[in-house]
């Protein structure tokens, strides 16, 4: 063998070895799949991103109630044009202007949630340059303090301080619920693949058994111990078993692709996807669930319970808003400070003069043709509807908890019964197969034993799926882990 052929064979063997290594099966349990889904699935990442958005929204809300320091102005404010100037005799003359009017304003503002008003502290400096006569003037406010206070008006800030913390707490619980929903979806896809793999295993076992039994039946036919009809029935079973294998394999591949996509399992373009082998989660932990505790935890943890309180507060807020805005609306604006002018910036700060400003703006509705009453009554009707809706939602919520707790206990017993039935059916089929080999059982009875074996195995897996679905649904509804007896954070 030449050296070139040896090198080529070495590369081929290395390539086949790497291919076998990349195609090694990946064994996963239900807990591992759920954890992978929470950490790296797109749905889990979307929930985390949404929670981050809600966090910064709440931080923005809190910042609105803290002092805000800002600098604004126009620098420069250059103008060159002709402006209309009315003369003493009533005629109009267009005079040329060329100036720069620059302003800087430094202000510190603070909202007052208790009253709905705001106070400010201000410092302002203005410079005016007239380029036509080459003169410069300064005007400024060295110091000013002011107040803007609504009178007899709706105070939105007071209500926001009650509703926004609830909304943020609601979003935190929604994030936990979203992760639990991811766990529930991962569990569903897990069992879709597990059921498909069990069906494929059943189909392959039946195909192998039918092939063996068909060979035995052919020998029995030559010996006269079986009829031609029974042999054809076994041959038909062989063909059906082969079709079942092909169908089950396709279903398993689709289920595997769906689970991989949900878990965001990526492979390099040159790698083959590793086959997934799922364990059967038949080790159930026995724990008692008190229905009253489940309901209490649900109303303490779920975002819906927080949402109920927020909805009632918002309905009460809307009633007060309608009542306040239908009456006298007034706003008190007041300011006190110092101001001055001069040809130099220092002149603004030399012996400044007092500067006062006070005004009350008001609106008094006189004739509204019943509009004010209609708005108020509409808000009260909406409040009553909100009370009724929340009450009905609470009852439906409690009913869901009762149903899931009862269902979980029943399904735990169902898992035990189907597991026992599966063992009995497997043993019965083995006995039936041995009896058929000894010519002590008909083909029809063997077919019945095969069907009962397959049905018992599928029922056991489906019972497990129903149990775990109820288990994760109860976690989602209560945000409480009854297995570990702790809240889900």
From TrEMBL:
Any matching Pfam family: OEP
Major site of localization recorded for this protein: membrane
Protein location: Cell outer membrane
Transmembrane segments: none
Assigned keywords, A-Z: Cell outer membrane, Membrane, Signal, Transmembrane, Transmembrane beta strand, Transport
Matches recorded under InterPro entries: OMP_efflux, TolC-like
Positions in coiled-coil regions: none
Cleavable signal peptide: 1-23
PANTHER family named among the record's database cross-references: OUTER MEMBRANE PROTEIN TOLC
Similarity annotation: Belongs to the outer membrane factor (OMF) (TC 1.B.17) family.
Name of the protein in question: TolC family protein
Upper taxonomic lineage: Bacteria, Pseudomonadati, Bacteroidota, Cytophagia, Cytophagales
